[in-house]
Write a structure and sequence with these properties.
Layout (H helix, E strand, L loop, with lengths): L1 H27 L14 H4 L1 E8 L6 H16 L6 E5 L3 E7 L4 H8 L5 E5 H8 L8 E2 L3 E9 L6 E8 L1 H13 L5 E5 L2 E4 L11 E7 L2 H14 L5 E9 L1 H54 L6 H30 L4 H33 L3 H33 L19 H28 L11 H4 L1 E8 L5 H16 L7 E4 L5 E6 L4 H14 L2 E9 L1 H30 L2 H25 L5 H31 L7 H33 L2 H23 L1 H24 L1
Antiparallel strand pairs: 1-3, 1-11, 2-3, 4-5, 4-8, 6-7, 7-10, 8-9, 11-15, 12-14, 12-15, 13-14
Helix pairs in contact: 1-8, 1-11, 8-9, 8-11, 8-19, 9-10, 9-11, 9-19, 10-11, 10-16, 10-18, 12-17, 12-21, 14-15, 16-17, 16-18, 17-18, 17-20, 17-21, 18-19, 18-20, 19-20
Length: about 725
C-alpha cells in the first residue's frame, strides 16, 4: 500500500516537473530556441508578401524550373532570410516573404516576370512593325544586373552594370562587334527598357549602360532586366500583401480568446464533473503547453486559421474527458467502486474516442492535401491538436486520476452519479425533426436565386475573391466610415486611380474597425500601386494590404471545395462501415453529415457570409467534428444491442434508450467546443468572425442531428429497408 502511494506521489511530481519544464521552454527557450515567440508566423500574422507564378508554355524542363527557383530565391534572400521560394505542382512557383514592412515595394520589385530580349537596330524595326525578328540576347543570357553610380567623372553618372553568362558573353561580343556606333534595344514584355549606344566591342562578359538620368531610373532598368533574366517566362496568378498591424491585432485577440475560452471550459468541467473535472483542467494546461512546444518542434507555420484550429482543438481535447467522465459516472451509478469505475470508464470510452478522432483526422488530412495557403495551417494545427488531445485524455488524465485514487480520493461524491432519465421516444418524434430540417435546407436553396437577383451580390452565394478572382484591398483609415460615406468619399478616389467605373468596384465595411475592403476585377500591379498612392494622398491610412487572385486559381478553389467534402464523406462512410460492420451506420452518419453541411450552407446563403478559402475549412471541420456525437450514439447502440438482447428488446427501444443515455454526454461534448468558438467569434478579429459563426452553427447543427436525426435514420434504414429487401426476396422466390 505504501509502495502504491509512493508511486502515485512520484507520478504527480513527475507530471508537475515535466509540465513546468515544458512551460519554461515555452517562455525562455532551450539553447537559444523553442520559445513561444520563436514560432514561425504566416503572412496573415507576421505581415509580408506572397506571390504565386505560373510558367508560360508547355515544354518545361526540370533544369529550367530548378534554375528559376534558385535565381528567385537568391533575389528573395536580399529582402529577408526567412523568405522562401518553392515549386508548386509541375508548372507553378510560389514565393513567401514574411515579416517585411515594405511588402508593397517588394512586390513591385519582384514584378511580373516576363520576356527579356536584346535586339539590334535592324531587328528592332522588324519588331516594331510586327514582323518576324531575331534577338541577339535573351534573359537566359544575363547573369546579374545592378544599378550603380559612377563618380569617376566630374559629373555623377548613373549606370546599370550587366554581367553575362558564358554563352551570353560570346553572343554579346558578336553583337557589339557588329554594331559599334549603333544602338542595342533592351525589350521587356514588349516595352523598350533602354536603348544604349555601342561605343566599342565588348568581349569581357560584362558591360555598363551609362548616361541614365537618375538612380531611380537606373534601378528600374536593372530590376526589369533581372526579372526578365529568368530561364522561364512567368505570369502572376495570385499575390497577397498583408500589413503587419493586421497580424498584430489578430495575435492579440486570438490569445485573449484562448485565455477566456480556457477559463470558461475549465469552469464548466469543474462544475459538471467535480474532482475529475479538476484533473482534466490540469491535463488541459499540459496539453496547451505541449501544443506550443510542438509548434516549435515540428516547425509549424502558424496562420490565423491555424490559431482557430488550436482553439477548436482545445474544446475537442475536453470532449474525450467528457466521454470518459460520463462513463465513470455511469459505472459508479451501477454500484461499482471508484477504482473499478475509473478503469471501466476508460475502457468503455476508448472506442468512441478513437472513432471520433480518427474521422476528424480524415477531414484534416483531406483539407491538408486539397487546400492551400493559410488553410493548410488550419489542417496542420487541427490534426496536431487531435493527436495531442488523445494523449492528454488517454494518458495524462488517466495517470493523474489513478494516482489520486491511490492517494485515497475514492469517495463517490467527488465523482458524481447519473440520475436515471426517462426514455424519450426519439424515433416516433423524428418525423417532426425531419420536417424541420427539410424546411431549413429548402430555405437555403430558395435564397440562391434570390441572391443571384440581388445586384449587391449577383451570384447564388456571396463568393469571395478567392472563388471569383480579382483584387481585394483592405485599407485601415484613421476613422470609421459608414458604407454611404465610403461610397461618397473613397470610391471616386479609387475609381479615378485605377481607371475602372464605380459600378465595377465593391466596398465593404469591416465590423468593429476602421477598415474598408475594396473589391475590384483583377488589377495589374501598376493599378494596385496607383490605388494605394491615391488613397494615401487623400486620406490618413494606418494599414494597407492587397490580395490578387487570377481566374485560374479561383476556379481551382471552387473545384477543391466541392471535391474535398465529397472525398471526406466517402472516406468516413468507408471507415464507419468498417468499424461498425454495418454499412447502414456509415450511410446514416454520412447523410447526417450532409444535413449538417446543408445547415451551414443555409447560413451562408441567408446571411450572405463570404464564401472563400476558409469555407472549405469550415465545411470539412463540421464534417469531421459533428460525426463525433453521432459515433457516441452509434457506439452505445452497438453496446446495447448486446446488453439488452436485441432479439427480445424491440430495436426502437434500444435506439431510444441509447440516445437517452448519451444525451447529456452529447450536450457537454459539444458545449465545450461551442464555448471556445463563441469566444473566438466575440473577441477575434473580423477575418475570423465569419469562420467562427459558421462553426458555431455547425456545432449546434451537429448536436441536433446526432440526437434527433442519426439514431432514427439508422433505425428506419435497418427496419424499413430490410423489410423491403425481404419482400423482394420472397417475391423472387415465388
Amino acid at each position: 500500500m505504501k509502495n502504491q502511494k509512493f508511486k502515485a506521489i512520484l507520478a504527480i511530481i513527475l507530471f508537475l516537473l515535466v509540465t513546468l519544464g515544458m512551460a519554461y521552454v515555452d517562455v525562455f527557450g532551450l539553447a537559444g530556441s523553442g520559445k513561444a515567440e520563436d514560432i514561425k508566423l504566416g503572412l496573415d500574422l507576421a505581415g509580408g508578401v506572397s506571390i504565386t507564378y505560373g510558367v508560360v508554355g508547355d515544354d518545361i524542363s526540370s533544369e529550367d524550373m530548378a534554375d528559376t527557383v534558385y535565381r528567385l530565391q537568391k533575389r528573395v534572400d536580399g529582402y529577408s532570410t526567412e523568405g522562401e521560394v518553392y515549386k508548386q505542382g509541375d508548372n507553378r512557383i510560389a514565393i513567401e516573404i514574411p515579416g517585411v514592412t515594405n511588402a508593397t515595394e517588394i512586390l513591385e520589385e519582384l514584378g511580373q516576370p516576363g520576356a527579356l530580349e536584346f535586339m539590334d537596330e535592324t531587328n528592332y524595326q522588324l519588331f516594331a512593325n510586327g514582323k518576324d525578328y531575331e534577338t541577339v540576347l535573351t534573359g537566359a543570357d544575363i547573369k546579374e544586373a545592378q544599378a550603380g553610380i559612377d563618380n569617376s567623372k566630374t559629373v555623377t553618372d548613373y549606370v546599370v552594370q550587366l554581367e553575362f553568362t558564358d554563352s551570353g558573353r560570346e553572343k554579346f561580343a558578336t553583337a557589339t562587334t557588329n554594331n559599334v556606333g549603333k544602338r542595342i534595344y533592351i525589350i521587356y514584355n514588349g516595352d523598350v527598357v533602354s536603348a544604349p549606344q555601342v561605343q566599342e566591342a565588348i568581349t569581357t562578359g560584362s558591360c555598363v549602360i551609362n548616361k541614365i538620368e537618375s538612380y531611380e531610373e537606373a534601378d528600374r532598368i536593372a530590376t526589369s532586366i533581372r526579372i526578365g533574366a529568368l530561364p522561364l517566362e512567368l505570369t502572376e496568378l495570385q499575390s497577397n500583401v498583408v500589413g503587419a498591424k493586421l497580424g498584430e491585432d489578430a495575435i492579440h485577440t486570438s490569445l485573449l480568446a484562448g485565455v477566456i475560452g480556457l477559463a470558461l471550459v475549465a469552469l464548466i468541467m469543474i462544475l459538471v464533473y467535480r474532482f475529475p473535472g479538476v484533473v482534466s483542467v490540469l491535463a488541459l494546461c499540459a496539453y496547451t503547453i505541449l501544443m506550443v512546444l510542438c509548434l516549435n518542434l515540428f516547425d509549424v507555420t502558424l496562420t490565423l486559421p491555424g490559431i482557430a484550429g488550436i482553439l477548436l482543438s482545445i474544446g475537442m481535447a475536453v470532449d474525450a474527458n467528457v466521454i470518459i467522465f460520463t462513463r465513470i459516472k455511469e459505472e459508479i451509478t451501477t454500484g461499482k467502486t471508484v477504482p473499478v469505475a475509473v478503469q471501466a470508464g476508460f475502457k468503455k470510452a476508448l472506442s468512441a474516442i478513437l472513432d471520433g478522432n480518427i474521422t476528424t483526422l480524415i477531414a484534416a488530412a483531406v483539407l491538408w492535401f486539397m487546400a492551400s495557403g493559410s488553410v493548410k495551417g488550419f489542417a496542420q494545427t487541427l490534426a496536431l491538436g487531435i493527436l495531442l488531445s488523445m494523449f492528454s485524455a488517454l494518458v495524462i488524465t488517466k495517470m493523474l486520476l489513478n494516482a489520486f485514487i491511490q492517494l485515497g480520493v475514492t469517495n463517490p461524491k467527488f465523482y458524481g452519479t447519473i440520475s436515471e432519465r426517462k426514455s424519450h421516444d426519439y424515433v416516433k418524434n423524428s418525423k417532426f425533426c425531419f420536417i424541420f430540417s427539410a424546411l431549413v435546407i429548402i430555405a437555403g436553396l430558395v435564397f440562391l436565386p434570390i441572391n443571384k437577383a440581388n445586384t449587391n451580390i449577383g451570384h447564388i452565394l456571396n463568393f469571395s475573391m478567392e472563388f471569383m478572382g480579382g483584387t481585394s484591398m483592405t485599407v485601415e483609415f484613421d476613422k470609421q466610415y459608414t458604407l454611404a460615406e465610403a461610397e461618397k468619399e473613397i470610391l471616386p478616389v479609387v475609381s479615378e486611380a485605377i481607371g475602372i467605373s464605380d459600378g465595377d468596384i465593391q466596398l465593404q465595411n469591416v465590423q468593429d474597425s476602421n477598415s474598408i475592403i475594396i473589391k475590384t476585377p483583377q488589377l495589374s500591379l501598376d493599378q494596385r500601386n496607383a490605388a494605394e498612392t491615391a488613397l494615401k494622398d487623400a486620406f490618413t491610412i494606418n494599414d494597407f494590404s492587397t490580395e490578387n487572385i487570377s481566374s485560374t486559381v479561383s476556379n481551382e478553389m471552387q473545384r477543391d471545395a466541392i471535391l474535398s467534402v465529397i472525398v471526406a464523406s466517402i472516406l468516413m462512410l468507408i471507415y464507419i462501415a468498417f468499424r461498425f460492420k454495418d454499412v447502414r451506420f456509415g450511410a446514416s452518419a454520412v447523410l447526417a453529415l450532409i444535413h449538417d453541411v446543408m445547415f451551414v450552407f443555409t447560413l451562408y446563403a441567408v446571411a450572405h457570409l463570404s464564401v472563400g478559402n476558409t469555407f472549405i475549412a469550415c465545411m470539412l471541420t463540421i464534417v469531421g467534428y459533428s460525426i463525433n456525437a453521432t459515433i457516441i450514439i452509434f457506439d452505445r447502440i452497438r453496446e446495447n444491442m448486446k446488453v439488452m438482447d436485441s432479439k427480445k428488446t424491440p430495436l426502437k427501444d434500444i435506439v431510444n434508450t441509447s440516445i437517452t443515455q448519451t444525451f447529456t454526454r452529447s450536450i457537454y461534448t459539444n458545449l465545450t467546443t461551442f464555448v471556445m468558438v463563441l469566444v473566438l467569434y466575440i473577441v477575434g478579429v473580423s477575418a475570423i468572425k465569419e469562420f467562427a459563426l459558421a462553426l458555431m452553427v455547425g456545432v449546434l447543427g451537429g448536436t441536433y442531428s446526432s440526437i434527433c436525426i442519426t439514431g432514427p435514420l439508422w433505425y428506419y434504414m435497418r427496419t424499413k429497408l430490410t423489410k423491403k429487401e425481404k419482400t423482394k426476396a420472397a417475391k423472387a422466390a415465388k
